[in-house]
Specification:
Rossmann fold, globular, 17% strand, nine-stranded mixed β-sheet, alpha/beta, 9 strands, binds guanosine-5'-triphosphate, 34% helix, binds magnesium ion, 12 helices
């Protein structure tokens, strides 16, 4: 059975994918890696960066693929393929603008037993005035960073997610004459950045993306819908000088190939978080269940969907 994961640019796809891979491979949780596969190299590589206390590089804008993570559910022995997004930049936006799924995506969607939608709440929080006047959104206003993806002039951010879900359910052949039973988990990523840590993930979704919340309430059956929070890193990574690390563009090396060893070592130190490295990535990152309970087993993100009855 396969589960399709979707998330827009900078939503934390690569880091979370690497952490899930690390948990499944090196720790005992609800899911394990059932085999090594050629195409998991991307996640393996990203996990090795985290082991060095460094952030994985940004995914190239031109990449638009997926990585199949072959997992096994420990309790039941059931095999699950997690179709993890390996794309960068504006690729999801292209789907939304063209309002069409490419044939390969249509096939993945039809075959998917369920979907995991990754949303980074701090990158999509839109103040009310911006909903009515999209043009006034600027860097530096609350919740915006350079990482904040641009929004379509005509659409508030949450309508884009509604449109995406409409495209997917259409491709899946589901009709609105009854609520959808297709298992869906909305995972709010980089949860450590969320200002009000006392909110449950569902409250955060309702507050931050009200249109999406309303749509889900009307369209999805309650038992098939899950909302969780997830922080893949626990906190932002910083170097020893306290400067925030950033995922380098994929084609930018850390230092020149012929850099003297001391310069290369300094470049490594500047781009790594010593404490994160010492604690190892496996012990960091957590998931927040909707009842507010914190779990260190990130693979529970997938488990909730598997408890659901089979999709139509
Ligand atoms: N605080 C915090 N920051 C995170 C977390 N996960 C990722 N980040 C930050 O977000 C940046 C983007 O994460 P990626 O995993 O590269 O995101 P992506 O969706 O793969 O991004 P693209 O490949 O550029 O589309 C990282 O470089 C980190 O700086 C997290 O759990 N907490
Ligand atoms: Mg990426």
């Amino acid at each position: 059975m396969s589960l399709l994961v979707l998330g827009e640019a900078h939503s934390g796809k690569t880091v979370l994918g690497a952490q899930l891979y690390g948990r499944a491979r090196y720790t005992e949780g609800s899911l394990t890696l059932r085999q090594q596969a050629q195409d998991i190299q991307v996640l393996d590589h990203a996990f090795r960066s985290l082991q060095r206390g460094m952030l994985p590089s940004r995914t190239s804008k031109d990449t638009f693929g997926t990585v199949q993570l072959p997992l096994r559910r420990c309790g039941t022995g059931q095999d699950v393929d997690l179709i993890w997004p390996d794309y960068g930049g504006e690729q999801l936006k292209i789907i939304l603008e063209s309002r069409q799924l490419a044939p390969a995506w249509e096939e993945r969607t039809t075959q998917a037993h369920g979907i995991i939608l990754l949303i980074r709440p701090t990158a999509t929080h839109v103040p009310p005035d911006v909903l009515t006047h999209p043009g006034v959104r600027e860097f530096g206003s609350s919740g915006y960073t350079e990482d904040t993806p641009p929004i379509d002039e005509d659409l508030p951010v949450d309508s884009q997610y509604v449109e995406l879900l409409q495209l997917l359910t259409h491709a899946k052949g589901l009709h609105r004459d009854q609520r959808f039973d297709w298992p869906l988990t909305v995972a709010l990523t980089c949860w450590d950045e969320v200002a009000d840590q006392h909110r449950t993930p569902e409250e955060q979704l309702r507050k931050g993306l009200p249109l999406l919340w309303q749509y889900l309430q009307g369209a999805w059956s309650t038992s098939a819908l899950h909302v969780v929070g997830v922080s893949a890193l626990t906190r932002p990574l910083k170097n020893e000088d306290g400067n925030l690390l950033d995922g380098l563009p994929h084609d930018q090396p850390l230092h020149a190939a012929d850099a003297p060893p001391e310069e290369a070592r300094q470049a490594m130190l500047d781009a790594s978080d010593k404490d994160f490295r010492n604690r190892t990535p496996q012990t960091q990152g957590y998931l927040i269940r909707n009842d507010g309970q914190q779990e260190s087993d990130l693979t529970l993100l997938v488990d909730a969907l598997l408890s659901e009855p089979h999709a139509p």
